[in-house]
Amino acid sequence: MQTVIPELLREETLELLAALGAFTAYAALARPPRVPRGSAALVFRVLNDGRSVRARDEAIIGRSHENAVVLEDPRVSRSHARVVRRGAQAWVEDVGSRNGTYVNGQQIEHAVELRPGDRIEMGASAVEFVGMEPWK
Question: How far apart are CA 93 and CA 95, in angstroms?
Fold first, then answer.
């Protein structure tokens, strides 16, 4: 069985791979960050007003006061975007909004993985994805 090693690995890493056995070392490097078992909080900061918002495992962003993240912006749909936790990752998708959803200035056409610090933009509003933490 042939092992494929990404070109981005440095020489020191390749030496480690050779010393430990390619599969074991590569598996250790590729392991996703630990996320608490059970529920996790998705943490956001509304950039327009500085509010911090926590939502359990899933968050709808939009104008509706039933949403986890409420934006008072006429160019934002009532339910504009959805952020959902899938294991150790958070994903955002547009849920049929009229004006589209953008991540870091790029319009999204399908679900996109979020990283801490990413900006979710809609209308004249922006929400920063801060990250995930244990749900308390």
Answer: 6
